Amino acid sequence: MLRKGIVSLLTFLLLAAPFGRAEAIPAFARKYGVSCSLCHAPAPRLTPFGEEFAANGFQFTLDEAPTDTIDTGDEQLHLMESIPLAIRLDAYVQALTRSPAAASDLQAPWLVKLLSGGQIANKVSYYLYFFMSERGEVAGLEDAYVQFSDLFSSGVDLLVGQFQVSDPLFKRELRLEYEDYQAYRVRVGDTRADLTYDRGLMAAFSPWADADMSVQLLNGRGLDEADEHKSFDTDGWKNMAARFSQGLGPLRVGVFGYYGTETGSLTAGTPLDNEILVYGPDLTLSLATNFELNAQLLRRTDERPFFELEQSDTDVDMGFAELVWSPQGPAGRWFFTGLYNHVEADQALFTVRQGEDSLLDSYRSAAVGANYLLARNLRLTGELQYDLEREGMRLVAGFMSAF
After folding, report:
1. Residue 95: which of 389, 383, 388, 400 has the closest Cα?
2. Alpha carbon of 366 to those of 34, 156, 384, 386: distances in Å?
3. Which letter does DSSP use for residue 26 in this model?
4. What is the end-to-end Cα distance of the chain in Å, rounded?
5. What whole-number distance in Å separates Cα of residue 247 and Cα of residue 366?
6. Which CA distances in Å does 57 have to 68, 171, 274, 366?
7. Is residue 5 scored above 80 in pLDDT?
């Protein structure tokens, strides 16, 4: 009954109910003839204007007259003169201590992305990127969706496709650090569900001033390939997520919840379900224009993470704290970061998918970094990370570029 009640409630909110916005790309700067600093401080981190630009379907205003379309004589056809394209290329050199990996590594290129986004029709836009190379492999599409803005003049935005479940919280793709937001990467036992990429629907709206609400309906399987039946999902359930946040001057506070069920392999001829619940608060504190503090706390409970007949409820507590300092302000060249990750379980049962030899019961790391803008679209970066569990250090230096 609880499961059906939660599913019914969240489905209603989804159909009646802003969601995480994508990153702006250099193609938009070319279109409007403006600096990348209008949307980024620094790239890929978005400014408030960049957030609004993405929310408007990659336009300055939602109802602006199109300037980049072909006049076909058909008022119902909004056809761009050319497909907007951009490239992101990152490269690093890494040094490690107390690691099974190589003591040093030239990671060049570390990633190469082909990005595109723009208008399909009035109040309808798309965004996608293709990993031409990610850690030496062709990873394919990650973000890939169509966005319906102000759906039927309701104030609701609807996103359909592939996106990250954590996008309404803090976007992994927009962070400045090499170290990840590990709480979002956690997978427990044999389950596939986490807070990174998934396929589904996301609806968003602002119920009142400076408040945001988002609701998601998800497969809960990540970006797995379709099976022999041409289906992405492998069970009859859809997972749900919702997040509400409220701005209070320089402080924004939010609360997030995720509920889902995943069916595992047959044991003694019986299909077993793992019931998943993730919940917790988040906050952002902006001090003047120089400091921003982000924090996330989550608890995840799994009923049968290994799909065993005997129920084995497990808990994982996870979170991170991030500080971004721009001593010269958003338009400056220097940006400094600090990031602390903490994941802890009541037994060895989770992975953050970073090459662990076995399941973990604890992950703790601290990283400090410095970033310098050699150009608006070329950022030099250096980061020192310390793994408190393995008692090892990682030093990374490199660059991020977009053009």
Report:
1. 383
2. 37, 39, 8, 5
3. H
4. 52
5. 28
6. 14, 18, 37, 36
7. no
Say if CB 303 and CB 272 are below 8 A apart: no
* Residues contacting residue 81 through CB under 8 Å, at least 6 positions apart: 68, 69, 70
pTM of the model: 0.90
Contact criterion met (CB below 8 Å) for 276 and 241: no
8-state DSSP, 348: S
Is the pLDDT confidence value at 315 over 90?
A: yes
DSSP 269: T
d(CA 86, CA 28): 9
Q: Are 109 and 90 in contact (CB under 8 A)?
A: yes
Per-residue pLDDT band for 15 (boundaries 50, 70, 90) equals very low
**Whole-number Cα distances in Å, 211 to 18, 45, 164, 254, 370:** 9, 21, 21, 9, 33
- What does CATH list as the number for 2-402? 2.40.160.10
Pick from 17, 42, 14, 7: nearest CA to 376: 42
Q: 34-90: per-residue pLDDT in tens?
A: 888 888 889 898 888 888 888 888 888 888 877 788 888 898 898 988 899 999 999
Name the residue ranges covered by the structural domains of the chain: 2-402
CA–CA distance, 360 with 187 (Å, rounded to integer) = 10
Summarised one tens digit per residue, pLDDT across range 348-394 is 999 999 888 899 999 999 999 999 999 999 999 999 999 999 889 99
